Amino acid sequence: MKSFKELGLNENIINGLNKQGIETPTEIQSLSISDILDGRDVIGEAHTGSGKTLAFLAPLFQKIDETKREMQVLILVPTHELVMQINNQIKLLSTNSEKAVTSLNIIGDVNIDKQIKKLKEIKPHIIVGTPGRVLDLMNKKKIASHQIKTIVIDEGDNLLDNTSSNFVKDIVKKTMRDRQLLIFSATISNKTLSTSKELMKDPIIYKNKQQVSLNPNIEHYYIEVDQREKVEVLRKLLSAVNPEKALVFVNKSFDINIVKDKLNYHNKSAFAMHNRLTKEQRQNALESFRNGKINILISSDMTARGLDIDNITHIINLDFPKNSEEYLHRAGRTARGNNCGTTISLVTQKEKGAIRIYERDFKIKIQKKNLSYGKLI
């Protein structure tokens, strides 16, 4: 595998990476950095924890002309949390590489006039934002779309495969034809690939060729329950396993606040993540979860996008994942590094068939468990 220097990164950027403890490129970094430096359009499939954020940030940092106080890079992501995480990585790389790259977060649920004022004051080199608000500001002529040299669409499988796709397409169409477009995602469906190609110029495509796998340090269990009993079983399960840090996933069959209220009523320290929270509420909740003041976080797959939290001991699927992708994304949030973790799914009779599919896809065993006398057996 080539070194960062052989891939074309300069000494300042390499030093910036080294200061973060990053000395050798990951697979997605070694595949994509040179092409990004060369200005090629790239579609990159890379799983969580693969270093995909730095796969595009490092070469783009090198390409940015920090002497020009104008926007040069636009990064589009689906959630507020991912906006914050990428912006934090930008600040870290800017400090460590001693390159004065400025950035600004653009998200919904924030006063748009304040954002317009900051755009004028900071004149950021990079904007990291959610598509809806970015498009609003473009339509108001507050973001100079003709200045954008590169657009990054992160979590492309999400942004190009739902209602956000029209926003993204409109944003891309407002930029110059010679701009560079980069699309990264944990998984790339055929639909996402087709949409991506419509927006790009002869893209280079890096599909993950490795067998998708889950950390062998994860134990996988399921409990068979009736749909109407799931919340009560969840309460008993949490009492039985007493998790240090649990992430509970729901789809749409439950009101997330009702689940939270029931758990809190029974003295469980739980918080519900949803799109109606303010930016401050989200940040406070995540900080409380990280430092242990809250040990149960309830979320949908959408609101969990971009959450980067270490030491999650338990993943609990109150609603069973709809497909293998979802199971992978959820279970992969525990047992990071050399840690161990547990994934427990509450499964109805109708959902049981999917267990065998996930066992086959990931070469795992999902063991049946029961709750008896306050214990998981």
UniProtKB/TrEMBL annotation:
<dbReference type="GO" id="GO:0016787">
    <property type="term" value="F:hydrolase activity"/>
</dbReference>
<keyword id="KW-0067">ATP-binding</keyword>
<dbReference type="GO" id="GO:0003724">
    <property type="term" value="F:RNA helicase activity"/>
</dbReference>
<dbReference type="Pfam" id="PF00270">
    <property type="entry name" value="DEAD"/>
</dbReference>
<protein>
    <submittedName>
        <fullName>DEAD-box ATP-dependent RNA helicase CshA</fullName>
        <ecNumber>3.6.4.13</ecNumber>
    </submittedName>
</protein>
<keyword id="KW-0378">Hydrolase</keyword>
<feature type="domain" description="Helicase C-terminal">
    <location>
        <begin position="217"/>
        <end position="377"/>
    </location>
</feature>
<keyword id="KW-0547">Nucleotide-binding</keyword>
<dbReference type="InterPro" id="IPR014014">
    <property type="entry name" value="RNA_helicase_DEAD_Q_motif"/>
</dbReference>
<dbReference type="GO" id="GO:0005840">
    <property type="term" value="C:ribosome"/>
</dbReference>
<dbReference type="GO" id="GO:0005829">
    <property type="term" value="C:cytosol"/>
</dbReference>
<dbReference type="InterPro" id="IPR014001">
    <property type="entry name" value="Helicase_ATP-bd"/>
</dbReference>
<dbReference type="GO" id="GO:0005524">
    <property type="term" value="F:ATP binding"/>
</dbReference>
<dbReference type="InterPro" id="IPR050547">
    <property type="entry name" value="DEAD_box_RNA_helicases"/>
</dbReference>
<dbReference type="Pfam" id="PF00271">
    <property type="entry name" value="Helicase_C"/>
</dbReference>
<feature type="domain" description="Helicase ATP-binding">
    <location>
        <begin position="33"/>
        <end position="206"/>
    </location>
</feature>
<dbReference type="InterPro" id="IPR027417">
    <property type="entry name" value="P-loop_NTPase"/>
</dbReference>
<feature type="domain" description="DEAD-box RNA helicase Q">
    <location>
        <begin position="2"/>
        <end position="30"/>
    </location>
</feature>
<dbReference type="GO" id="GO:0009409">
    <property type="term" value="P:response to cold"/>
</dbReference>
<dbReference type="InterPro" id="IPR001650">
    <property type="entry name" value="Helicase_C-like"/>
</dbReference>
<feature type="short sequence motif" description="Q motif">
    <location>
        <begin position="2"/>
        <end position="30"/>
    </location>
</feature>
<dbReference type="InterPro" id="IPR011545">
    <property type="entry name" value="DEAD/DEAH_box_helicase_dom"/>
</dbReference>
<dbReference type="GO" id="GO:0033592">
    <property type="term" value="F:RNA strand annealing activity"/>
</dbReference>
<keyword id="KW-0347">Helicase</keyword>
<dbReference type="InterPro" id="IPR044742">
    <property type="entry name" value="DEAD/DEAH_RhlB"/>
</dbReference>
